[in-house]
Design brief:
The protein is of the alpha+beta class. It contains 1 helix and 4 strands. The protein has one domain. A 4-stranded antiparallel sheet has the order 2-1-4-3, with no helix packed on it. Bound molecules: zinc ion. The site of zinc ion has 8 residues, from loops.
């Protein structure tokens, strides 16, 4: 009986945890860095983007910018 209660409690905690994770997925950001002048800018994550992908142009030196990191805020 006690084990059943414990499993139920664990299930409730886990489902709550995953629900929170889903909520934060809409605020994923990515960091673009220019390999030439080290200029960096944070933009919204777009599906299909990955670390190392060349994306956008540097406003300072017009070099191609690269995605350095993807994270949720
Ligand atoms: Zn640059």
């Amino acid at each position: 009986m006690f084990i059943f209660f414990l499993a139920l409690l664990l299930y409730m905690l886990l489902s709550n945890y995953f629900k929170k994770r889903e909520d934060t997925s809409s605020t994923t950001k990515e960091l673009l860095v220019c390999p030439n002048c080290n200029y960096s800018v944070e933009v919204d994550f777009e599906p299909g983007d990955f670390i190392g992908l060349i994306k956008g142009q540097c406003p300072r030196c017009s070099s191609k910018m690269r995605i350095k990191g993807i994270y949720s805020v």
